[in-house]
Design brief:
The protein has seven helices and six strands; from the N terminus they run βαβαααβαββαβα. The protein is of the alpha/beta class.
């Protein structure tokens, strides 16, 4: 059985950000790929927000129908690669937390979209790419860290549009 490669990619859950996912899949040699898309949203200190809004609720707000449709299209396009895409929200940019998160998620590769301007969709947004760059030297050496330039036209937008 082939080992699954787990790739973490900072995301803002827009169609444009999925181009980096497609590019990462194309460049990977793995047969099985888990993509973890993470958005940075600092945890609220408001009691009402802490009690009432869970991860699924936040993801429902952040992910549009066209984004989810594009993910489904990607599954179909890469069905021979045994692809899975997960969405998550990081609640802090604390370096120790990020290291534990990467270990807990068994991340093999971190791919940072270079030169990408993330859309700030929440008031507590933080740039996960910058947070990961800040702890790059503290990340386990078994995790590959790569800056990825966008080098193609938006295939995702064309496929969904």
């Amino acid at each position: 059985m082939a080992k699954t490669t787990r790739i973490l990619i900072p995301s803002d859950f827009t169609l444009e950000s999925l181009d980096f996912v497609s590019q990462s899949i194309d460049e990977s040699t793995a047969d099985q790929i888990d993509i973890i898309l993470v958005y940075g949203n600092r945890n609220s200190t408001s009691a009402s927000e802490l009690l009432g809004i869970g991860l699924e609720d936040q993801l429902d707000v952040l992910q549009s129908a066209s984004f989810l449709k594009a993910c489904s299209t990607m599954y179909q396009r890469y069905q021979t690669r045994k692809l899975s895409i997960f969405a998550d929200i990081l609640g802090t940019d604390n370096g120790h937390y990020l290291q534990h998160y990467l270990k807990g998620q068994s991340v093999d590769e971190i791919i940072i979209p270079s030169g990408y301007n993330y859309k700030k969709k929440t008031r507590n947004f933080f740039n996960v790419a910058d947070a990961l760059r800040n702890v790059q030297h503290q990340i386990r050496p078994t995790i590959s860290f790569k800056e990825q330039r966008h080098n193609r036209k938006s295939e995702v937008l064309l496929a969904v549009g």
